């Protein structure tokens, strides 16, 4: 709704500036021209909407990720591009053989295409092929580094233990090489 109001405001501003420039008797001053250019460049945003989203990321001919969602809107400006996905959102991550290694679920997601960063919001769950699980309310995934993190409360469950805490950083496979800043819970030490 807020995005719709912004579009209406920009359209109104554009119409007002166009009316002023057409109705003025003389040329626009340099300052007025700069203001018109700034207002117009600020409103040059394209939006693409999709329903029943099924998006894949393929690198070097290999499927790396597949995302499903009920609705997506992609906002593109001269400087950036981001896609907002409404859920339920389901993400499958694949290894080099095409086998699903990790599944993630959330209520919504934002994909920053320029930086290859996903942010998952609301009832976030991550399940790996070797039965490791993570739950949180927010998760950030930096694709290029295969790093997931959250400053929020997180619970990690493995076949042998569980741990909870606030602040997490690790890889998408939830291997034992992760950090929880303020841990609590039970775990087995060999």
UniProtKB/TrEMBL annotation:
Pfam families: LptC
PROSITE patterns per the UniProt record, alphabetical: PROKAR_LIPOPROTEIN
Chain segments annotated as coiled-coil in the UniProt record: none
Gene3D superfamilies tied to this protein: Lipopolysaccharide (LPS) transport protein A like domain
Cited NCBIfam families: LptC_YrbK (TIGR04409)
Name recorded for this polypeptide: LPS export ABC transporter periplasmic protein LptC
């Amino acid at each position: 709704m807020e995005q719709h109001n912004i579009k209406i405001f920009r359209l109104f501003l554009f119409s007002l500036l166009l009316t002023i420039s057409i109705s003025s008797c003389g040329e626009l001053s340099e300052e007025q021209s700069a203001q018109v250019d700034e207002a117009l460049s600020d409103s040059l945003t394209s939006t693409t909407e999709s329903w029943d989203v099924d998006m894949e990321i393929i690198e070097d001919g290999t499927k790396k990720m597949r995302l499903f969602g009920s609705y997506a809107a992609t906002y593109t400006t001269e400087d950036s591009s981001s896609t907002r996905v409404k859920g339920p959102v389901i993400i499958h991550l694949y290894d080099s053989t095409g086998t699903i290694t990790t599944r993630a679920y959330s209520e919504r997601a934002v994909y920053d295409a320029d930086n290859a960063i996903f942010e998952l919001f609301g009832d976030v769950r991550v399940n790996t092929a070797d039965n490791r699980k993570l739950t949180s309310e927010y998760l950030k995934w930096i694709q290029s580094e295969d790093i997931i993190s959250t400053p929020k409360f997180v619970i990690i469950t493995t076949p042998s233990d569980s741990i909870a805490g606030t602040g997490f950083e690790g890889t998408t496979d939830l291997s034992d090489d992760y950090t929880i800043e303020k841990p609590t819970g039970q775990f087995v030490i060999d």
